[in-house]
Task: structure prediction
Amino acid sequence: MNTTQHDATAYAHELTRVREHQDVAVRARRRVFEALAQAGTAQAEADELIAAVEAGSMTTAHSCISESSAPESNPTFEDGWAEGVCSISRDLLRLADVTAVPRGRAHRPDPGTNA
Result:
């Protein structure tokens, strides 16, 4: 197997794992919304709570990536690593900002589900 095939296979496995995590998250989010509704939490408040938790997950990922260091001590590699970390960190912060805005999901099922 050549490197391109290996990379494509590895990426396909990553996408499968991402999809599995997304499916679990959608089911968990639905269950939390249901539990909050049963506890008498207003839909708008439930939506704000979930948005805050999800934004917090993004900022946790941001911190993990920002605090990482290059696996090798090659100065050229370290510069590229730092640039990549900064780029990914900016993207995660932008996603956290977007995720922190309640989207009314407590009012309806998540798109793409059978609920």
